[in-house]
Amino acid sequence: MNDILTRVEAARNIFEQSKSYVDFACKKRGEIQNKYEMKIKLTKIGMGLAGLLVFIFFPEVLKSQGIEILENLAVFLAVCVLPGFFLIKYYKKLKGTYDAGMEEANQTEAYGKRIPGLSEEVVNILPEEYRSLEAAEYICEVLKNGEARTLKEAFRMCDTQFHEQKMARIKAAIAQNDRMIADNNRTVKRISEDMTRMHDEAERKFWAS
Questions:
Q1: Are 113 and 18 in contact (CB under 8 A)?
Q2: By C-alpha distance, which of 116, 84, 92, 83 is closest to 40?
Q3: CA–CA gap between residue 118 and residue 123 (Å, rounded)
Q4: Angle ∠(23,26,32) on CA atoms, nearest 5
Q5: Burial code of 162-174, b = ≥16 C-beta within 10 A, e = fewer?
Q6: How far, in Å, CA of 19 to CA of 131, rounded?
Q7: 123, 135 in Cβ contact below 8 A?
């Protein structure tokens, strides 16, 4: 039994390592999105506005005559072209940093998910359906505390535990849905009562006048 427990703990450690990589990747992805997505969106809006200004004012510059065309061209470059140029450069920098960070996060997550497959000789103590951190932790626990005396018994207990958790989640979801329906019904009833009251009040005012 000690040998089996040691092997199950080793498998659990592999799944724990896998999860740590995946969790780190998800956290990194969220940080990158929070830091860059709004900046990228605003920069794209700025580029669009700069392009619109070029479209609107360039024909006006061409209509200028003599020295006026040089003055208008200088203003046009300063107000429309240069800001647009710098916005494009800034956008490329932001997008490059964003894409590189997301790619690194995706690669980290992919590697984390591959870890159990790369350690098949360690995790093969557990059948496919029990190859997760949650299942491995539960199996380790019931083997350690003596609730399960064999690996097969630990699997049965794990099935029961996970089934109970699934049913509890379903019941909680149903209860939440029932609460939402009840809240919606109360809202509809309140609106209906308000509309009836407003109608009655309007009707009384009409006949009173």
A1: yes
A2: 92
A3: 9
A4: 140
A5: beeeeeeeeeeee
A6: 12
A7: no
78: nearest Cα among 61, 63, 94 = 61
Q: How far is CA 47 from CA 54, 92, 100, in A?
A: 11, 12, 22
**One-letter amino acid of 72:** N
Q: Using one digit for the tens of pLDDT, what is the confidence trace for 59-104? A: 877 777 777 777 878 888 888 888 889 999 999 999 999 999 999 9
Do 61 and 72 form a contact (C-beta atoms < 8 A)? yes
Summarize pLDDT for 160-187 with one digit per residue, the tens: 999 999 999 999 999 999 999 998 989 9
Average pLDDT score, the chain? 90
Distance, CA of 184 to chain centre: 28
Rounded Cα gap, residues 83 and 89, in angstroms: 10
Question: Which alpha helices (H) appear in 64-81, and where do they start and end?
Answer: 67-76
**Cα-atom radius of gyration of the chain, to the nearest Å?**
33
Burial of 88 (0-12, 13-18, 19+ CB in 10 A): middle
Of 58, 59, 61, the residue nearest 70 (C-alpha): 61
Tokens 């140029």, residue located: 85
143-146: long-range contacts, CB 8 A cutoff, minimum separation 24: 143/1, 143/4, 143/5, 143/8, 144/5
Give the number of residues written for the chain: 209
